[in-house]
Amino acid sequence: MASVDIANRFASESTWMSTQHDYILGLNTYDHDVSACLLRDGAIAFAIAKERITREKHASGFYREVVDYCLKAEGITLDDVGLIVRNCYILPVNEMEQRLLHQDMPYYFDADERKQAAHHPLFRSHSDKLMTVSHHLAHAYSAFAACPFDEGAIMVVDGVGSYRSDVTESIPPGDDASALARESESYYRFAGSEIVPLKKIWMEPGRGFLNQEFFNMPGLGALYSRVSIYVFADWNKCGEVMGLAPYGRAGRIAPLLELKDDGRVAVREWPEEFNQPWLSAAGENWEKSPALRHWEDLAWRVQDDAEKTLLARAKWLRETTGAKNLCMAGGVALNCVANGRIAREAGFDNVWIQPAAGDDGIAIGCAYYGHLAIRNKPRSFVMKHAYLGVDYGDDELRGLMNRTAIRMATTTTVSNNVCADTARALSAGEIVGWFQGRSEFGPRALGNRSILADPRPPAMKDRLNMRVKHRQAFRPFAPIVPLERAAEIFVGGMESPFMLLAEEVRPDWRDRIPAVVHVDGTARVQTVRQEDNPRLYALLQEFERLTGVPVLLNTSFNVKGEPIVETPADALACFLGTGIDCLVLHDFLIRKTKLHRLLSPLIQVYSEVGAIVRTGLGQQPAG
User: Fold this and answer.
1) Buried (b) or exposed (e) across 135-145, using 16+ Cβ within 10 A?
2) pTM over 0.90
3) What superfamily would CATH give domain 147-353?
């Protein structure tokens, strides 16, 4: 149905006037990174990924938890929501739910969720308040609807999107893809609230064990995921592939893809010599594997292929549209190294990347599709930050810390100047868990759910990887810096509030902040404006006052294989179970007692504190 017809249908609904505010709910459903975004009068009120609630990385399945989270945070019910827009890249949501009624698909719908859904008002609902939008169109709306530009171009590249038969946007003329081809790349231009599709790159279905083996299809994002599977036995470890790439040797492996004159991507057949997947060496230490050099070279190759392809696409888009501004989304837009090259070399004046560029950000795109395309409302909101979770109150923190076992394992003091006290701890070499305000939406910890450390000691990177993060030694850490100091330390000094651009560290600074400099001399920078995060900005100032360095090491508050912490209970559990020296919860400074090692097994932190999270005691918004 055309957008105008849907808009006319909704325009007559009295439910729109049922509350003081106009609420729209966007949902990414069933497959990985299930999420929700609630708009209030065209602005993002709350957004959350299911993994933050269930503590299961890239959580799939039913969407009850994320819907409840947003409604509870806002203090409303489903009856107050006038429009709900959903996406599932596998099939349209109504068709997906029909299939799940009679197919046993535990990854998408386990037994417990089947019971939940049976009584949930949204499951298989035929309400006129519900609609579905296709995958890349949702990514496109997430990219431009909340950007700071009035006009520009949009670039969407990911692993796999909707079938051509399910696409809810107009197809550019001359497109001859089959009905079962899948979205790989989509390009648009926009002005105001209007969006025009320019070109779509499809992946035709291929042969395989399963028809959902997108990583064997001929697409850029699909190829990158294939390398991720080969090196890390997981299609969703593309960030690790990017981090490994600088260790590889240039040109040792021939290009894996090429761009054809008609714009299509040609992916060459997987070479026979690629017969050393980590999966075949189960139980081996990854870092001591004899195949490591081969994996490094392969990571270099696919990263180089990706950078060249994306840069060529961005230059074409600039020449085709004449646009000065570029917006990006889709999982490939999380490749900060390629993003940095696009920002520097593609010819755009400005580049804005959706902080939740992956499929969790689909919920934002769905919500804004409803606001702009269905409601025909103007754009009025700019996403200046990604702090979109609930704010937890001090009373809840006190209740958590007053539990008998926690009191015995920790000491708590209230700081009169938490930034100054934390800066002193950091400058003394302590690793600090930093929990402030509302949680970040998207895969990056941006200073509210972060582990912070001093970037000056060269050994800090290895110490963090071994004692806290429990991950491979090659993986780098990011620097955070006040925006106005960025150009002094990083070549280019571009604004990068969402940690999605890699820049070269200036030579005279590399020895001063070695813990955040990658092997190739670059860093994934996060810049901070005082108005966007006053407390984090103040902490950076206090650290510079003590050390002369306006930079801190910032990594996500979690351990390998777990989502970023959401609640105070999650933060306390991670603190007690790792080598973090100090936990800062709002103005509370928490340290471990000498009894901690003895009591830690008795406390059973992850089960006890996890129970708090799942019973809702750790999910109360402030006041």
Assistant:
1) bbbbbbbbbbb
2) yes
3) ATPase, nucleotide binding domain (3.30.420.40)
